[in-house]
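fyi for ur records
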Amino acid sequence: MVEENLHRESSRAQLEAYYASLSREDDVVSRCVMWLPTGADGMALRGKTVLDVACRKGKGVYEIAEDVGPNGHALGLDWNSDFIDAARAGQAHAMAKMPWVCGAGGAGRTSEATAQASGSDTRSRMTAAKNLMQFFVGFPEDLVGAGIPEHGVDLVFVNTAASMFFDAQRAYTQIARVLRDGGHLHHEMVCVDAAGEQQEMSPTQSSDESRNSLPASLVHAPTKEDFIDRISSAGFSCIQVVSEEPLQLPDTPISKDASDRFIDLVIDAEVHQ
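which gave:
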C-alpha cells in the first residue's frame, strides 16, 4: 500500500510539472468549435450528464448546460486552476441566461413585475441551476481522482487540446472509466494528413520566429490512424467519423500550410462496461 501511494504521488508530481509547463495560448485549441449530438429537436442531451475535458474558462460548459437542461449536469475539468476560477466566476452570469431561470423573456429580460409575481418560482429555478454546472481542477489522466464520478457520465467531449495530454492513452482509459455503459466520447482532434509521417512546414517570409513556430497542438498531432487506434485501445467501439475536413485557422503565416497538411477530425465512440 505504501509503495502504491508513493507511485501515485510520483505520478501526480509528473503530471503537475508537465501541465504547469504548457502554454494554452494556442490558435488551434482556442478556435475549437464544440459540436455536440443534440439531435434534430435539440433535446437529445436533455437530462444527461456531460463532461468537457480541458474546458478552459468554461464557455463550452455553459453551452452544454443549456443542452442538458435543468435536470442534467454539465461538468468541466481543466488542469489550469486560473481557468477554473474564471469559469466559476462566470457561472452565475451564465445561469441567469438559462431559459428556466430567466423565464420566457429569455437572456435575463424578464420584466420586474413578472419577476416579483414569480419570485419564489424564480428562486427555485436558480437553486436548481446552481446544481447544473460543476468545475474541477484536475488532469485528464486522473479524472476519478479529480472528483468525476466513476460510471457517472453519459457523454464526454474532448477538444484538440488532447494532442498535448501527458499520456493520451491513460487519459482515454480514464474517460472510458467515468462513462456509463453505452456512454459516448465525442472528440475533435487535429490530425496529420499524411500516410504516417508529419512533414516539415514550409518557411515563411516573416522574420518573427514566434510566428514561424507551430502551435503545440500541431507539433504533437497524431495521424488519423494512430488517433483512432488510441481510442480503440482504451476500450471504445463503434468509432464513427462525424466530420473530416482541412484544418482552418485564422489568417496567419502558417494557416495555408496547416490546411494543406492537417485535418480537423471529429469522431464519436461508444463504450460498454
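Residues 104-117, 195-212 have pLDDT under 50 and may be disordered. thats all i got for now
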